[in-house]
Amino acid sequence: MTDTPNLPRFHDATAMFADENDSYDFKAKGQVRRAQVYDRRGRLLGDVWTDDRQAAGFSIIDDPEPDMGYAESRMDRILTEAYKAGTPASQLLDPALYAPDFELRLTP
Fold first, then answer.
1. CB 90 within 8 A of CB 24
2. CB atoms within 10 A of CB 44
């Protein structure tokens, strides 16, 4: 058997960890505001929420249809991009951040 130098060996692998500062905090400090998120077909996908300080996130509905799975990853990407762009958590319920793929409707 020949040694294949081009294949990575286990001890050559580098561990990759997500930077803990690549998005908003997931623990709200105080009350949160929410907006319902709808897809282009008018289906409710879940809620985007923020505490207006430093926490925000997306909660998908309890029983999503199979083709709604993309929403969670897409919303996470939108929030991460907003964080990296310096968007304050207080401005995350701006519908323009999610258009044209999603529609936000503020909940009382």
1. no
2. 14
Place of tokens 């999610």: 98
**Three-class SS of residue 45?**
strand
> Could you write out the DSSP letters of every residue in 74-103?
HHHHHHHHHHHTT--GGGTT-GGGTTTT-E
Single pTM value for the model: 0.76
Distance from C-alpha of 49 to C-alpha of 60, rounded to nearest angstrom: 11
CB 56 within 8 A of CB 92: yes
- Give the model confidence (pLDDT) of 19-33 as tens digits: 456 889 999 999 999
CB 104 within 8 A of CB 79: no
- CA 20 to CA 34: how far, in whole Å? 24
